[in-house]
UniProtKB/TrEMBL annotation, chain A:
This is Glutamyl-tRNA(Gln) amidotransferase subunit A. The gene is gatA. Allows the formation of correctly charged Gln-tRNA(Gln) through the transamidation of misacylated Glu-tRNA(Gln) in organisms which lack glutaminyl-tRNA synthetase. The reaction takes place in the presence of glutamine and ATP through an activated gamma-phospho-Glu-tRNA(Gln). PANTHER family: GLUTAMYL-TRNA(GLN) AMIDOTRANSFERASE SUBUNIT A, TRANSAMIDASE. Keywords: ATP-binding, Ligase, Nucleotide-binding, Protein biosynthesis, Transferase. Pfam families: Amidase. The active site is at K76, S151, S175. Belongs to the amidase family. GatA subfamily.
From TrEMBL, chain B:
InterPro entries: Asn/Gln-tRNA_amidoTrfase_suB/E, Asn/Gln-tRNA_Trfase_suB/E_cat, Asn/Gln_amidotransferase, Asn/Gln_tRNA_amidoTrase-B-like, GatB, GatB_C_1, GatB_Yqey_C_2, Gln-tRNA_amidoTrfase_suB_CS. The gene is gatB. Allows the formation of correctly charged Asn-tRNA(Asn) or Gln-tRNA(Gln) through the transamidation of misacylated Asp-tRNA(Asn) or Glu-tRNA(Gln) in organisms which lack either or both of asparaginyl-tRNA or glutaminyl-tRNA synthetases. The reaction takes place in the presence of glutamine and ATP through an activated phospho-Asp-tRNA(Asn) or phospho-Glu-tRNA(Gln). GO terms for molecular function: asparaginyl-tRNA synthase (glutamine-hydrolyzing) activity; ATP binding; glutaminyl-tRNA synthase (glutamine-hydrolyzing) activity; transferase activity. Gene3D superfamilies: 1.10.10.410, GatB domain, N-terminal subdomain. This is Aspartyl/glutamyl-tRNA(Asn/Gln) amidotransferase subunit B. The keyword Metal-binding does not apply. It catalyses: L-glutamyl-tRNA(Gln) + L-glutamine + ATP + H2O = L-glutaminyl-tRNA(Gln) + L-glutamate + ADP + phosphate + H(+); L-aspartyl-tRNA(Asn) + L-glutamine + ATP + H2O = L-asparaginyl-tRNA(Asn) + L-glutamate + ADP + phosphate + 2 H(+). It comes from Neptunomonas qingdaonensis. Keywords: ATP-binding, Ligase, Nucleotide-binding, Protein biosynthesis, Transferase. Heterotrimer of A, B and C subunits. Belongs to the GatB/GatE family. GatB subfamily.
Length: 483, 483
């Protein structure tokens, strides 16, 4: 019963091939047996899962099952989950048992899905490799010497290793799409405001967005149906009707206009990745799409702009971790200042502290105009680039990452090199646009992702474009050896 | 050379919303510590603010009442600093685009003239919690009930030139916000508090360095704190010293200000627009709708009291300053159908009792209807003014209507001519010496001498004889004895 897609599992449950409890037990057993290799879970919620699975079976017996009822899902450990440790990958919250559910969790619970556990992540979602996690790095099931990507690396590793059929992730600069690319998954970062951020521990509020990570576009559509929608508890969520994202997956692509930004195919791009992405585009042409080169001239500015805006917001968002009310507090503080300094000094890891310092500096009196304000202006330029191009084409395509999954430790010594990992992904967050990564081939045994970018609230179109590709190709069905 | 004092004030008025500015928790005062702090107020990870529209409405009411420009687009900013009773590590406030722009208010000076004081701006922000240092040995208690209570910070121009002007301004703002019903004005509970920016200079010279004295919570303390601070500054300057720009604290017990922190130690608040809240956008229609529903403002009410009730300018000023008092007075005036008598009683006997018992008019044990009923009995001669004071005393202590108390205590005025004549005759018979003096006196001196006989009649009658009747009859009888 394992190794199925969400849609496949839903069918199995509907047809009574197995019960929700059997399904949950099978996944829990596999996590127990296998996860020491991948370290993809921070917390396995066995008791909760079995309880939810039993409830799902009961509601199915009573004829109240929805498509999601009884489907096991893993949640990134950034979504507050009532009664469960929610750590955000940080020592700071290692002892934090959330007293409430994030809106995304509440919606999955209401839909009847089963929470398998909380997945590993870069500390406070700051990282592109999962190596900044307090709980140790998660490993890429395609090659455990390599990173699964980040920050939603635990979610990606869990799905790729078959420890969960699907998982939630969050994406501030590529944290859904990059690990999806590294682990041969389908990941969707929705339009900013499409999915509620309430209960999702904030990294950079104006960039953070939750989304699905799955084996197929169809599964991602099923999950987005649960996750999307206006939330009165999140003022930045958008009041806009939520379509059934599974309804138009099969719409034909004839006449689809694809734009290829020349800035995404520069000389520095790994040639194998460039070739695979171009091959995928050729496949789309075969499906009836037309292709043209477009330009996003401010792409190069997205890394510096992002690394001002995101740390600035983070420096403020993470101020609440002060040892006063919850979370880590240093031993025997001598006075208030000592408590603040040691709590935060000991509770946060290196990368988090680096970004807090960068952000604090960028917002300081005398530097605000030169850094934060300038970065916001660049952000508007980047957005205008996209708006212009997306008035000419339906979707933009390119690589998700400049390289396939790198080795653990390979980029930890040079933060800037790590930051460049996100060159193709973070401009979308700056613009607030939706984007996907889908498998489009293998390079030296490691997966490569195709990024598809759409207009605001064009998730339905993106899922359609991704699904048609997955109907025509089988890259997404490849599994790591031995699975 | 003459010293001139320059004063600007920042008033923090807690807005009278039932729930907090960014959460649904109650704002009621005096609950057990931390029972009115929800997940948002505690700044649990993942929580987000949702703006309370009532706070906006109240801020716009204030703005329209002082003829201010209303910000069509106002933006919340984060003011970042660490303090244990500031749960998020930042205060959400409005720096760059406040809801209320430039306006003004007129104050009455002692010489009867008016002076216009400029209001620079008024902005919305959240209150912090409270640190409790006394009750916990070597520790600090944090009560977050107040955290997130909406505040309107009203910033004046440095237009005031004396402590008296400053107090007149504060009283005027207090009167305005309480009349608008947007603040309960309770200074002891901290609903209305004041920071005083004070500097001195030789008349005509440039502004001197100023100090800011924080959180003064009574009109009297404002006056004392300013006077003390002015004297301190002049002493320093006359000794050839310099004023340090700093924040000071007023110690009411010692009646002095002391340094809290200097400018050098001041925080860099790293203001930036709060990414969790959207800009507040309002239009003329919204503002006009609020303008139309503004209650009668103190200045208008004062003018009406003078015109409608023929009150003196002073009485009208006192009675229009505080809405609960104004409303109380008008009810008494309507019930008793005698405005002048009502004004005298409200400002006299009632105010005296309220002051003695440190009670707000809203909590007066004697209602406006009760007092109005009592004044009716004065007017129809059921009781004299002096007896009415006894009735009032009983009302204050034991409750009950004027009629019930008069009946129960047998205080009804004696108006029966036969009964009064009997007492008058008795007094004349028992005071032969004074009668002889009366008869012997020059006719124009006799008027004064009648007071003695009146007093005797009142003594005998227990104060219940109708003074008018007694006076007439006594004069008639005594004059009849004269040759």
């Amino acid at each position: 019963m394992l190794n199925k897609t969400l849609a496949g599992l839903a069918k199995g449950l509907q047809q009574g091939e197995f019960s929700s409890v059997e399904l949950a037990q099978a996944y829990l057993q596999r996590i127990k047996n296998e996860d020491s290799k991948y370290n993809s879970f921070i917390t396995v919620t066995e008791e909760l899962a079995l309880q939810q699975a039993a409830a799902a079976d009961a509601s199915r017996a009573a004829g109240n099952a929805s498509i999601m009822t009884g489907l096991p899902i893993a949640h990134k450990d950034i979504f507050c989950t009532q009664g469960v440790r929610t750590s955000a990958g940080s020592k700071m919250l290692d002892n934090f048992i959330s007293p409430y559910d994030a809106t995304v969790i509440r919606k999955f619970n209401a839909a009847g899905s089963v929470t398998l556990g909380k997945t590993n992540m870069d500390e406070f979602a700051m990282g592109s490799s999962n190596e900044s996690s307090f709980y140790g790095p998660s490993r890429n099931p395609w090659n455990t010497q390599h990173v699964p990507g980040g920050s939603s690396g635990g979610s990606a590793a869990a799905i790729a290793a078959g420890l969960a059929p699907a998982a939630t992730g969050t994406d501030t600069g590529g944290s859904i799409r990059q690990p999806a690319a590294f682990c041969n998954l389908t990941g969707l970062k929705p339009t900013y405001g499409r999915v509620s951020r309430y209960g999702m521990i904030a990294y950079a509020s104006s960039l953070d967005q939750g989304g699905p990570m799955a084996q197929t576009a169809e599964d991602a559509a099923m999950m987005l149906n649960v996750m999307a929608g206006m939330d009165p508890l999140d003022s930045t969520s958008v009041e806009r009707a939520v379509p059934d994202y599974t309804a138009n997956l099969d719409a034909p692509l004839a006449g689809l206009k694809i734009g290829l930004p020349k800035e995404f195919f520069s000389a520095s791009l790994n040639p194998e990745i460039a070739a695979l992405v171009r091959a995928a585009v050729t496949e789309y042409e075969a499906l009836g799409a037309t292709v043209k080169e477009v330009s996003l001239p401010n792409t190069a500015l997205s890394v510096p702009a992002y690394y001002i805006v995101a740390p600035a917001e983070a420096s403020s968002n993470l101020s609440r971790f002060d040892g006063v009310r919850y979370g880590y507090r240093c031993e025997d503080p001598t006075d208030l200042e000592d408590m603040y300094k040691r709590t935060r000094g000991e509770g946060f890891g290196t990368e988090v502290k680096r970004r807090i310092m960068v952000g604090t500096y960028a917002l300081s009196e005398g530097f605000y105009d030169a850094y934060y304000k300038k970065a916001q202006q660049i952000r508007r330029l980047i957005q205008q680039d996209f708006v212009r191009v997306l008035s000419e084409v339906d979707v933009i395509m390119g690589p998700t990452t400049p390289t396939p999954a790198f080795k653990l430790g390979e980029k930890t010594s040079d933060p800037v090199e790590m930051y460049m990992e996100d060159i193709f992904t973070l401009s979308l967050n700056l613009a607030g646009l939706p984007g996907m990564s889908i498998p489009c081939g293998m390079s030296n045994g490691l997966p490569v992702g195709l990024q598809i970018i759409g207009n605001y609230f064009a998730e339905e179109k993106l899922l359609n474009v991704a699904h048609k590709f997955q109907q025509a190709t089988d890259w997404h069905t490849l599994k790591p050896a031995g699975l | 050379m003459e010293w001139e004092t320059v004063i600007g004030l920042e008033i923090h008025a807690q807005l009278a919303t039932t729930t907090k500015i960014f959460s649904g928790a109650s704002t009621a005062y005096g609950a057990e510590p931390n029972t009115q702090a929800c997940a948002v107020d505690l700044a649990l990870p993942g929580t987000l603010p949702v703006f309370n529209e009532n706070a906006l409405r109240m801020a716009v009411m204030f703005g329209t009442a002082i003829d201010a420009e209303i910000g069509k687009v106002s933006v919340f900013d984060r003011k970042n600093y660490f303090y244990p009773d500031l749960p998020k590590g930042y205060q959400t406030s409005q720096l760059f685009y406040p809801i209320v722009g430039e306006g003004h208010i007129d104050i009455e000076l002692e010489d009867g003239s008016t002076k216009r004081i400029g209001v620079t701006r008024a902005h919305l922000e959240e209150d912090a919690g409270k640190s409790l240092h006394e009750e916990f040995a070597s520790m600090t208690g944090i009560d977050l009930n107040r955290a997130g209570t909406p505040l309107l910070e009203i910033v004046s121009e440095p237009d005031m030139r004396s402590a008296e002007e400053a107090v007149a301004y504060v009283k005027k703002i207090h009167s305005l916000v309480t009349n608008l019903g947007i603040c309960d004005g309770n200074m002891a509970e901290g609903s209305f508090r004041c920071d005083c920016n004070v500097s001195v200079r030789y008349k005509g010279e440039a502004l001197g360095n100023r100090t800011e004295t924080k959180n003064i919570n009574s009109f009297r303390f404002i006056e004392k704190a300013i006077k003390g601070e002015v004297a301190r500054q002049i002493d320093i300057l006359e000794d050839g010293g310099r004023i340090t720009q700093e924040t000071r604290l007023y110690d009411a017990d010692k009646d002095e200000t002391r340094s809290m922190r200097s400018k050098e130690e001041a925080n860099d608040y790293r203001y930036f627009p709060c990414p969790d809240l959207l800009p507040i956008v309002i239009d003329d229609e919204y503002i006009d709708a609020i303008r139309k529903t503004l209650p009668e403002l103190p200045d208008t009410r004062r003018a009406r009291f003078i015109n409608t009730y023929q009150l003196s300018s002073y009485d009208a000023g006192v009675l229009s300053a505080y809405k609960p008092l104004s409303d109380f007075f008008e009810t008494v005036a309507t019930t008793s159908a005698d405005a002048k008598l009502s004004a005298n009683w409200v400002m006299g006997e009632l105010s005296k009792h309220l002051n003695q018992h440190d009670t707000d008019i809203k909590d007066s044990p004697v209602s406006a209807e009760q007092l109005g009923g009592l004044l009716q009995r004065i007017k129809d001669n059921t009781v004299s003014g002096n007896i009415a004071k006894k009735v009032f005393e009983a009302m204050w202590k034991e409750g009950g209507s004027a009629d019930e108390i008069i009946e129960a205590k047998g205080l009804k005025q004696v108006t029966d001519t036969g009964a009064i004549e009997k007492i008058v005759d008795e007094v004349i018979a028992n005071n032969q010496k004074q009668v002889d003096q009366y008869v012997a006196a020059e006719p124009d001196k006799r008027g004064k001498m009648i007071g003695f006989f009146m007093g005797q009649v009142m003594k005998v009658s227990g104060g219940k004889a109708n003074p008018g009747q007694v006076q007439g009859m006594m004069k008639q009888k005594l004059d009849a004895l004269c040759p």
